[in-house]
Amino acid sequence: MKNKLSDLNNHLFAELERLGDESLSGDALQAEIARARAITEISEQAIANASVVLKAEALRAEYMGVNFKIPGLLEDGDG
User: Fold this and answer.
1) What is the mean pLDDT of the chain?
2) 57 near 51, Cβ under 8 Å?
3) Is the separation of the CB atoms in 63 and 21 below 8 Å?
4) How far apart are the first and last CA of the chain?
5) Would you give the distance in Å from CA 51 to the centre of its chain?
6) How far apart are CA 37 and CA 66, in angstroms?
7) How many whole angstroms separate alpha carbon 13 and alpha carbon 28?
8) pLDDT class for 69, splitting at 50, 70, 90?
């Protein structure tokens, strides 16, 4: 899987840095706020999806007697 939750975390912090740019004002600031809201909405869905995937894997491991495996989208991209 190409995208990981660590990538989402990086995007969220990058957006936080953009929102903290004190040189933004007026229309540029409003555009950045709108962008942040859109990112937040998409992020919430990505996190909810990851939660479902994690719960499903935990149930599979528990009830099918298999070893728990960290789902790909939760793995750190470094490993």
Assistant:
1) 85
2) no
3) no
4) 13
5) 11
6) 40
7) 19
8) confident
Residue 52 contacts residue 17 (beta carbons within 8 Å): no
Distance of CA 61 to the CA centre of its chain: 24
pLDDT value of position 74: 66
Tell me the C-alpha distance between 43 and 30, whole Å: 20
Q: What are phi and psi of 66, to 5 degrees?
A: -110, 160
Which span out of 41-45, 56-60, 70-74 was modeled with the highest average pLDDT?
41-45
Query: What does DSSP assign to residue 69?
Result: -
CB 32 within 8 A of CB 63: no
pLDDT at 58: 85
Mean per-residue pLDDT, 47-69: 83
